[in-house]
Amino acid sequence: MSQNDKGVLEPERVRGHFVSKFVNKLSGQPDSYVNRGNYTFGKTLGAGTFGVVRQARKVSTDEDVAVKIILKKALKGNDIQLQMLYDELSILQHLSHPNIVEFKDWFESRDKFYIVTQLAIGGELFDRILSKGKFTELDAVKIVVQILGAIEYMHSQDVVHRDLKPENVLYVDNSDSSPIVIADFGIAKKLKNKNDLIFKAAGSLGYVAPEVLTEGGHGKPCDIWSLGVITYTLLCGYSAFIAETVEGFLEECTRSKFPVKFHKPYWDNISDEAKNFILRSLTLNPDERPTATELLEDPWITSKALHERVTTNILPDVKKGFDLRKRFRDAVEIVKLNNRIQRLKNLYADEESESDLEENPVNYLNPLDAVGAVAHGLHELTMSSHKKMVELTQEQLKLKSALTQDAFAQIVNAATKNKHKVQGYNNGESSQ
């Protein structure tokens, strides 16, 4: 398979389909567009600034896959974003690891790029944990080991993911023994050498390493920081950092000796080894931060004696944070998804691309139900806190306030976009 000047392996040349190829050539379609006929497209899984992700079935193999569809018009004149697309393609094509989403195929039309990858149907990391009846510290260790294995492999290939977060950690299938895979390499970078630095900031606030937001450059250690934040959230259910601005985040993680705190009573049942592992991962100086290989030798990962001790079910405490987080995220995301698709249609769609930009029917999850559920959850949280106010420390009150403000901001966003439904809800009317 030949490689173009962008470092991307060209789409596989499909044999046969002579009539389709001839018609495509007459209509100005690229040769690889014939591949599209080998896929039956299903529901929309997500949408962003430049396109959508659709579930699809490959007809020739009867395999379910995920297809990222990028609109070329959305990238027109944006050389940086176009290069990021080629970077993502090239990186995915050259990575092969059981805990990294598998690249399958790519092709293009006059108006779109299509990137086909493994479809992980087992759900996102936190959603899967919510569905369990029990979750222990040892379960968290098993998850972290898989993420570390993927990071160790990526870094051995001089690839930095730069956007590690729970939403990008997926289960392959619904079985209890399902492996997890790291997905979404949209802002990943291939370094020129192992010590190369990247100077353009990118990532998700709350999981991004502090050096990414400064002018000194960043490299492989930024993925280790993100792993530390994921581990923190795995063990308590709430976010390690709550700032909503870069300045606030940098102040938050540097105001004390350590960038995070282990609040009582949420961390009372968590081992010191787990806390030390998190603090190692969240070492402020990236040059002193351990590598994935070093963390795989950490006592929290390797101690069999510890693993025999940490069998307490921490799900009830963890679930409180996860559940609230999931509900207000769902309430927002279902609204945002269709809004993004509609915006893409309005800006870029023509007759050819219209069929690829399908909105999901909104009745599979009523946004208002989710908003109401979150509002109820916040009410319960408030009532419970009033009863136990005398027992809460100042640190806990601060944490509760921050969590409540974050949830409230999300509810306001969802409610604003569904004003007529929310007004009906408040008047006791049923939403249709």
From TrEMBL:
Q: Can you say what this protein is called? A: calcium/calmodulin-dependent protein kinase
Enumerate the UniProt keywords alphabetically: ATP-binding, Calmodulin-binding, Kinase, Nucleotide-binding, Phosphoprotein, Serine/threonine-protein kinase, Transferase
Q: Where is the Protein kinase domain?
A: 39-301
Q: Which CDD domains has this protein been placed in?
A: STKc_CAMK
Q: Which Pfam families match?
A: Pkinase
**Whose protein is this, by species?**
Kazachstania africana (strain ATCC 22294 / BCRC 22015 / CBS 2517 / CECT 1963 / NBRC 1671 / NRRL Y-8276) (Yeast)
Q: Which PANTHER family does the record match to this protein? A: SERINE/THREONINE-PROTEIN KINASE
> From which domain of life does this come?
Eukaryota
InterPro entries listed in its UniProt record: Kinase-like_dom_sf, Prot_kinase_dom, Protein_kinase_ATP_BS, Ser/Thr_kinase_AS
Give the SMART domains listed for this entry: S_TKc (SM00220)
